[in-house]
Amino acid sequence: MRQKHLQFNKAVMSIWDCCELLNECVDDSDPDLEEPQIQHLLQTAEAIRLDYPDDTWFHLVGLIHDLGKVLLHPLFGEEPQYAVVGDTFPVGCAFDPAIVHTELFKDNPDTHNPQFSTKLGIYQEKCGLDNVVMSWGHDEYMYQVMKHNNTTLPPQALFVIRYHSFYALHQAGAYKHLLSETDHENLQWLEKFNKFDLYSKSKVRVDTDEVYPYYQSLIDKYFPKVLRW
Protein backbone atom coordinates (compact mmCIF):
# COMPACT_ATOMS: atom_id res chain seq x y z
CA MET A 1 0.00 0.00 0.00
CA ARG A 2 2.88 2.36 0.75
CA GLN A 3 4.47 1.61 -2.59
CA LYS A 4 1.13 2.08 -4.34
CA HIS A 5 -0.01 5.32 -2.71
CA LEU A 6 3.13 7.18 -1.67
CA GLN A 7 4.17 7.96 -5.25
CA PHE A 8 1.76 10.95 -5.02
CA ASN A 9 0.71 10.52 -8.63
CA LYS A 10 -3.05 10.04 -8.22
CA ALA A 11 -4.25 13.65 -8.30
CA VAL A 12 -3.27 17.30 -8.06
CA MET A 13 -5.86 19.27 -6.10
CA SER A 14 -6.36 21.69 -3.25
CA ILE A 15 -7.31 20.78 0.32
CA TRP A 16 -10.84 22.11 -0.20
CA ASP A 17 -11.22 20.14 -3.45
CA CYS A 18 -10.34 17.05 -1.46
CA CYS A 19 -12.95 17.91 1.20
CA GLU A 20 -15.58 18.02 -1.55
CA LEU A 21 -14.32 14.82 -3.18
CA LEU A 22 -14.70 13.06 0.17
CA ASN A 23 -18.45 13.66 -0.03
CA GLU A 24 -18.53 10.90 -2.65
CA CYS A 25 -17.06 8.39 -0.18
CA VAL A 26 -18.88 6.35 2.46
CA ASP A 27 -17.14 5.05 5.59
CA ASP A 28 -18.92 1.79 6.47
CA SER A 29 -17.30 1.76 9.92
CA ASP A 30 -19.16 4.93 10.89
CA PRO A 31 -22.79 3.80 11.31
CA ASP A 32 -23.97 6.85 13.23
CA LEU A 33 -23.18 9.36 10.51
CA GLU A 34 -25.73 9.86 7.76
CA GLU A 35 -24.52 13.32 6.79
CA PRO A 36 -21.98 13.92 3.99
CA GLN A 37 -18.37 13.49 5.11
CA ILE A 38 -17.67 17.22 4.77
CA GLN A 39 -20.28 17.88 7.47
CA HIS A 40 -18.38 15.66 9.92
CA LEU A 41 -15.16 17.53 9.06
CA LEU A 42 -16.78 20.94 9.57
CA GLN A 43 -18.62 19.87 12.75
CA THR A 44 -15.33 18.60 14.22
CA ALA A 45 -13.48 21.77 13.21
CA GLU A 46 -16.20 24.10 14.52
CA ALA A 47 -16.42 22.26 17.85
CA ILE A 48 -12.64 22.58 18.29
CA ARG A 49 -12.80 26.25 17.29
CA LEU A 50 -15.38 26.88 20.00
CA ASP A 51 -13.29 25.30 22.79
CA TYR A 52 -9.80 26.33 21.57
CA PRO A 53 -10.37 29.69 19.83
CA ASP A 54 -6.68 30.66 19.81
CA ASP A 55 -5.26 27.40 18.42
CA THR A 56 -5.98 27.98 14.73
CA TRP A 57 -3.84 25.01 13.64
CA PHE A 58 -6.10 22.78 15.76
CA HIS A 59 -9.18 24.06 13.90
CA LEU A 60 -7.60 23.05 10.59
CA VAL A 61 -6.72 19.61 11.95
CA GLY A 62 -10.43 19.12 12.64
CA LEU A 63 -11.20 19.92 9.01
CA ILE A 64 -8.56 17.74 7.36
CA HIS A 65 -8.14 14.79 9.74
CA ASP A 66 -10.16 12.35 7.62
CA LEU A 67 -9.11 13.47 4.14
CA GLY A 68 -7.07 10.29 3.76
CA LYS A 69 -10.37 8.48 3.28
CA VAL A 70 -10.26 9.59 -0.35
CA LEU A 71 -8.44 6.28 -0.83
CA LEU A 72 -11.99 4.85 -1.01
CA HIS A 73 -12.65 6.93 -4.14
CA PRO A 74 -12.31 5.45 -7.66
CA LEU A 75 -9.74 8.14 -8.46
CA PHE A 76 -7.46 6.49 -5.88
CA GLY A 77 -8.24 2.90 -6.86
CA GLU A 78 -11.33 2.42 -4.69
CA GLU A 79 -9.47 0.63 -1.92
CA PRO A 80 -11.53 -1.75 0.24
CA GLN A 81 -12.87 -0.41 3.54
CA TYR A 82 -10.58 -2.56 5.70
CA ALA A 83 -7.52 -0.97 4.07
CA VAL A 84 -8.65 2.60 4.69
CA VAL A 85 -10.81 2.98 7.83
CA GLY A 86 -11.02 1.42 11.28
CA ASP A 87 -8.44 1.05 14.05
CA THR A 88 -4.72 1.28 13.33
CA PHE A 89 -2.05 -0.49 15.37
CA PRO A 90 1.69 -1.23 15.35
CA VAL A 91 3.02 -4.18 13.37
CA GLY A 92 6.26 -5.96 14.23
CA CYS A 93 5.31 -6.57 17.87
CA ALA A 94 2.57 -8.38 19.79
CA PHE A 95 -1.01 -7.34 19.03
CA ASP A 96 -2.49 -5.81 22.17
CA PRO A 97 -5.87 -7.12 23.39
CA ALA A 98 -7.14 -3.52 23.32
CA ILE A 99 -7.26 -3.58 19.50
CA VAL A 100 -10.83 -3.99 18.29
CA HIS A 101 -11.66 -7.60 17.26
CA THR A 102 -8.29 -8.72 18.59
CA GLU A 103 -9.53 -12.33 18.46
CA LEU A 104 -9.11 -12.28 14.67
CA PHE A 105 -5.33 -11.93 14.98
CA LYS A 106 -5.14 -15.66 15.70
CA ASP A 107 -5.19 -16.11 11.91
CA ASN A 108 -2.43 -13.58 11.33
CA PRO A 109 0.97 -15.27 10.76
CA ASP A 110 2.72 -12.54 12.79
CA THR A 111 0.97 -13.86 15.90
CA HIS A 112 2.95 -17.10 15.56
CA ASN A 113 6.26 -15.50 14.58
CA PRO A 114 8.59 -15.33 17.62
CA GLN A 115 10.24 -12.19 16.24
CA PHE A 116 6.94 -10.28 16.12
CA SER A 117 4.96 -11.74 19.02
CA THR A 118 6.71 -10.26 22.06
CA LYS A 119 5.77 -6.98 23.75
CA LEU A 120 8.64 -5.09 22.10
CA GLY A 121 9.02 -7.26 19.00
CA ILE A 122 11.46 -5.56 16.61
CA TYR A 123 11.43 -2.30 18.60
CA GLN A 124 13.19 -0.88 21.63
CA GLU A 125 11.55 0.68 24.67
CA LYS A 126 10.82 4.42 24.21
CA CYS A 127 11.97 4.22 20.57
CA GLY A 128 9.34 6.75 19.52
CA LEU A 129 6.35 6.23 17.23
CA ASP A 130 8.29 7.73 14.31
CA ASN A 131 10.29 4.49 14.38
CA VAL A 132 7.23 2.21 14.60
CA VAL A 133 5.51 0.81 11.49
CA MET A 134 1.74 1.17 11.77
CA SER A 135 -0.94 -0.76 9.92
CA TRP A 136 -1.97 1.09 6.77
CA GLY A 137 -4.99 3.38 6.81
CA HIS A 138 -6.26 6.87 6.04
CA ASP A 139 -4.30 8.35 8.97
CA GLU A 140 -0.91 7.34 7.59
CA TYR A 141 -1.82 8.38 4.05
CA MET A 142 -2.88 11.91 5.02
CA TYR A 143 0.19 12.31 7.24
CA GLN A 144 2.43 11.38 4.31
CA VAL A 145 0.55 13.73 1.95
CA MET A 146 1.10 16.58 4.39
CA LYS A 147 4.80 15.84 4.74
CA HIS A 148 5.31 15.43 0.99
CA ASN A 149 3.63 18.78 0.29
CA ASN A 150 5.63 20.61 2.97
CA THR A 151 2.83 21.72 5.29
CA THR A 152 3.82 24.27 7.90
CA LEU A 153 1.42 22.85 10.50
CA PRO A 154 3.19 22.18 13.84
CA PRO A 155 4.43 18.67 14.77
CA GLN A 156 1.51 18.07 17.15
CA ALA A 157 -0.90 18.54 14.22
CA LEU A 158 0.87 15.83 12.22
CA PHE A 159 0.85 13.55 15.26
CA VAL A 160 -2.91 13.94 15.75
CA ILE A 161 -3.64 13.17 12.10
CA ARG A 162 -1.23 10.22 11.95
CA TYR A 163 -2.52 8.49 15.09
CA HIS A 164 -6.18 9.50 15.54
CA SER A 165 -7.32 5.93 14.69
CA PHE A 166 -4.75 4.39 17.06
CA TYR A 167 -7.45 3.77 19.68
CA ALA A 168 -5.47 1.13 21.57
CA LEU A 169 -3.08 3.94 22.53
CA HIS A 170 -5.28 6.97 23.19
CA GLN A 171 -8.29 5.18 24.63
CA ALA A 172 -6.83 2.09 26.31
CA GLY A 173 -3.31 3.30 27.09
CA ALA A 174 -1.64 0.39 25.29
CA TYR A 175 1.80 0.61 23.63
CA LYS A 176 2.95 3.49 25.84
CA HIS A 177 6.25 1.65 26.31
CA LEU A 178 7.09 2.61 22.70
CA LEU A 179 6.50 6.34 23.18
CA SER A 180 9.28 8.92 23.35
CA GLU A 181 9.05 12.01 25.55
CA THR A 182 7.87 14.03 22.54
CA ASP A 183 5.18 11.43 21.82
CA HIS A 184 3.89 11.77 25.38
CA GLU A 185 3.62 15.56 24.93
CA ASN A 186 1.80 15.18 21.60
CA LEU A 187 -0.49 12.50 23.03
CA GLN A 188 -2.16 15.16 25.18
CA TRP A 189 -3.33 16.89 22.00
CA LEU A 190 -4.51 13.59 20.52
CA GLU A 191 -6.60 12.88 23.62
CA LYS A 192 -8.15 16.37 23.35
CA PHE A 193 -8.86 15.82 19.67
CA ASN A 194 -10.47 12.43 20.17
CA LYS A 195 -13.29 13.98 22.19
CA PHE A 196 -14.23 16.16 19.22
CA ASP A 197 -13.79 13.47 16.58
CA LEU A 198 -16.12 11.05 18.36
CA TYR A 199 -18.66 13.37 19.94
CA SER A 200 -19.08 16.38 17.63
CA LYS A 201 -21.27 14.51 15.14
CA SER A 202 -24.61 16.27 14.97
CA LYS A 203 -27.78 16.52 12.95
CA VAL A 204 -27.32 20.31 12.92
CA ARG A 205 -25.55 21.10 9.66
CA VAL A 206 -22.77 23.65 9.46
CA ASP A 207 -23.37 26.35 6.83
CA THR A 208 -20.50 25.60 4.47
CA ASP A 209 -20.70 28.94 2.65
CA GLU A 210 -20.54 30.83 5.93
CA VAL A 211 -17.42 29.11 7.31
CA TYR A 212 -15.59 28.53 4.01
CA PRO A 213 -13.65 31.86 4.01
CA TYR A 214 -12.28 31.18 7.50
CA TYR A 215 -11.08 27.65 6.73
CA GLN A 216 -9.73 28.65 3.33
CA SER A 217 -7.62 31.30 5.09
CA LEU A 218 -6.17 28.58 7.35
CA ILE A 219 -5.52 26.31 4.37
CA ASP A 220 -3.68 29.18 2.66
CA LYS A 221 -1.61 29.74 5.79
CA TYR A 222 -0.45 26.14 6.23
CA PHE A 223 -0.57 24.53 2.77
CA PRO A 224 0.37 25.28 -0.85
CA LYS A 225 -2.53 26.13 -3.20
CA VAL A 226 -2.52 22.65 -4.73
CA LEU A 227 -1.10 19.38 -3.39
CA ARG A 228 0.08 16.18 -4.99
CA TRP A 229 -1.95 13.22 -3.78
Automatic annotation (TrEMBL):
It is an enzyme of class 1 (oxidoreductase). Its cofactor is Fe cation. It is found in: Cytoplasm. Pathway: Polyol metabolism; myo-inositol degradation into D-glucuronate; D-glucuronate from myo-inositol: step 1/1. Pfam families: MIOX. GO terms for biological process: inositol catabolic process; L-ascorbic acid biosynthetic process. GO terms for molecular function: inositol oxygenase activity; iron ion binding. Its EC number is 1.13.99.1. It catalyses: myo-inositol + O2 = D-glucuronate + H2O + H(+). Its main location: cytoplasm. Gene3D superfamilies: Hypothetical protein af1432 (1.10.3210.10). Binds 2 iron ions per subunit. GO terms for cellular component: cytoplasm. Belongs to the myo-inositol oxygenase family. This is Inositol oxygenase. It comes from Physcomitrium patens.
